[in-house]
Design brief:
This protein is an alpha/beta fold and 244 residues long. The protein has a single domain (2-242), classed as Purple Acid Phosphatase, chain A, domain 2 (4-Layer Sandwich). The protein is built from 7 helices and 11 strands. A 6-stranded mixed beta sheet has the order 4-3-2-1-10-11, with helices on one face. Strands 5-6-7-9-8 form a 5-stranded mixed beta sheet, with helices on one face. A hairpin with a 4-residue loop joins strand 10 (222-228) and strand 11 (233-239). The two termini are 21 Å apart.
Length: 244
Amino acid sequence: MILFISDLHLSPRSPGATALFLSFLAGRARQASELYILGDLFEVWVGDDVTDAYSAQIISALRAASDAGLKIRLMHGNRDFAIGQEFASAARVELLPDPYPLILPEWQFVLSHGDALCLDDHAYQAYRAKVRDPEWQRKMRAKPRFLRRLLGRYIRWQSSRRKRHHTWVYADLHAAATDDFLRDHGYATFIHGHTHQPAKHDHIIDGIHVERWVLADWQEDRGECLVWDGKALSREALRAEDRS
C-alpha cells in the first residue's frame, strides 16, 4: 500500500494539523509500505540550520516512522523549497525531483507538487522562478539566520494577507500545459497538490483517458491521504477524532 499527501503547511501556528500528522505517522501511515509527501509539508522552511523544538519534533516523528519500516519520500513545495539534504538525513527521508515518475509493476504514475503548471498566475510564476533558482537559494542560505527567519515571517504574512480576500483562490493548472505534461510523461496517472482543490479530473489526451488526482490540503481538524492499494486509488479522510 502506498499513501500520498501534500499541503500540510505545518507550523507552531497549526497545532491541530501538527497533532493529526504526528498521529498519522505513528499509526495509519505505518500500515503502508511507502509515503509520498508532495510538497508544502511546512508552512515555511528557510534552511536546515534554522532549527527549533518544533522542527525537531517533526524530524523525530519522521525518523521514527522510517525506522519502523515506512519508506518516506519528500518533494519540495513552494513553501519548503529550502529543505536540504541535512533535513533529509536527520529525518531519514528521500528527497524527490519534481516531477517524479513512479513506475510500479501494476501501474504508472507521475508525481508533482503541481505549481509549475499554474501558468495563469503570472506573479506566482515569477516568484517560483526566483526561489527555485539554485544561485538564489545559495545566496539565501548564506544569509544570517535572523534574516532568513524574517524572510519566513514575510512569506507567512504575504500568504495570510492574500487569504483574507475571500474571493481569492489558488490558480488551477493551465489546461493545454497539463495536456502536454501528461503526453510527455506517457499518459501516466498524475497526482499533485498545491491548488487546495481536491478532485479527480479526467483528461482525454490523443484519445487516451488519463486521470489527474489533486490532493487535499490539511486543516486544523482534518486531513486526507490518497491510497494506492495495488489496484485502484481512493481517498481516505483523516480527522481529529481519529487521533490515538
